[in-house]
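Predicting holo structure, iron/sulfur cluster bound.
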Amino acid sequence: MPDSLDTIAAEVRICLRCPLGKGRTHAVPGEGPANARIMFIGEGPGYHEDMQGRPFVGASGQYLEELLAGIRLRRRDVFIANVVKCRPPGNRDPEPVELTACRDYLDRQIALIQPEVIITLGRFSMQRYFPGQSITRIHGQPKRVGDVFYLPLFHPAAVLRNPEWRTQMLADFARIPQLLAELDAERAPKPSAPAQDEDDENYTQLSLF
Ligand code: SF4
Ligand code: URA
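Done. Tokens:
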């Protein structure tokens, strides 16, 4: 059977590959459209995520939605996942063995979704693509590999704790539509764009899927 996002989510929900599986209320596989162009990768579920089985539903999630709205995107336009899918006790950092044990699930999700912009939130997802780098040094600076942009951003929770980073976070977020526009511009121009429906919320000029 070919792999699917549902298969992965089902495996994650019963996974005991690492010790985090024993402590969870709900695993948090991640969610969003299978054909999303944009994927956010956070760290791991917190209290609310563990309770609900959904990513970024607490304070960080609320802030993430606010940031998305600022670039005229909605939560349902993007795929949101984490590097570990079960909550580390007391929100401690994920351990290397946990990151390693969980790695394959996210790799499979990425392989299926094939996002064009992968946004890492915080240090632990950044390390997947920018090993050994410092977030304070490279945040907001995209790296292109083939047709995929990797954009390292601060973790929303870190910005909530350090309000002086908010302006920078807004500026970093503004890179996202720019990267999509850059990819769109490279594609063969279509002869004529279909007329926009007036009732269409007119949310974004960019095609998201
Ligand atoms: Fe499995 Fe990942 Fe949960 Fe560990 S964190 S039990 S590897 S799903
Ligand atoms: N922080 C994360 O890194 N992930 C979540 O899903 C929620 C908060």
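Residues 28, 42-46, 49, 55-56, 60, 82, 157 surround uracil (ligand 2) (CB under 6 Å).
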